[in-house]
C-alpha cells in the first residue's frame, strides 16, 4: 500500500509510486455519483487483482460555503460522493468479503463529523452521515468472522482540499501530514481498531462535547477561531 503520495496522481504516476514501495497498482473506473449502486451492487472485476479484501473509502469533495450561499448541485455532489458513494462501494465489495470471511472496510472521514464548523455545512453534514454509516456497519459486522471496519477521523490535513483554511493557533493545532494519516491508518487496520482520531488530542474534543454545556462549547469555538477558520478558504472541490 502506497498511501499519501497517491493523492492527485495520474494512473501512471500511481503505478510508479507503487513500484517504489514494492507494490503495483491497477486502475479501475468506478462512478459512484448517481441514484443507484453502480454495477448493480457487483464489484468491478479485474483478473490481475483477484479478490478485493481491503476497501478504503477516501473520496471526498468540499463546497466550502454557508447554506444560503451554497449551490444546490454542489450540495448534492457532496452528499453523493462523501456519503452515498460509500454505500455503493461497500455494497459492491462486501458480499465477497463475507463469503471469504476475510475483509476490511476503511473510511477516511474527518473530525468534522463530530464537531462541525461554519462555512463547510455540506462537508460536515456528509461526514457526519458517513460516520453514522460506518458506526452502524461496524456493529453489524461484529458477528461476521474475518470482516471488520475502521473509521479514521483526522484533524485538518495539509492537502489542497482545505487550502486557505486558517486556525487561530497553528502552532498548537498544526495540520497533519498526509503521510502521518496514511501510516496511522495502516496501523489501525493491522490492529483491527474500529475508531481512530488524529491527533490523539481530538479525543479530548469528544469528552468536552459530552460534558460541557452548549454555551461553554460556543466560547471554546470562538476562542479557537473555529467560527472564522473558513473565511480564507480557497480549496478545491
UniProtKB/TrEMBL annotation:
Belongs to the short-chain dehydrogenases/reductases (SDR) family. It comes from Cricetulus griseus (Chinese hamster). One of its GO terms (biological process) is regulation of retinoic acid receptor signaling pathway. The gene is Dhrs3. GO terms for molecular function: all-trans-retinol dehydrogenase (NAD+) activity; all-trans-retinol dehydrogenase (NADP+) activity. One of its GO terms (cellular component) is lipid droplet. It catalyses: all-trans-retinol + NADP(+) = all-trans-retinal + NADPH + H(+). Gene3D superfamilies: NAD(P)-binding Rossmann-like Domain (3.40.50.720). Catalyzes the reduction of all-trans-retinal to all-trans-retinol in the presence of NADPH. The keyword Transmembrane helix applies. InterPro entries: NAD(P)-bd_dom_sf, SDR_fam. The keyword RNA-binding does not apply. Its EC number is 1.1.1.300. This is Short-chain dehydrogenase/reductase 3. It comes from the Eukaryota.
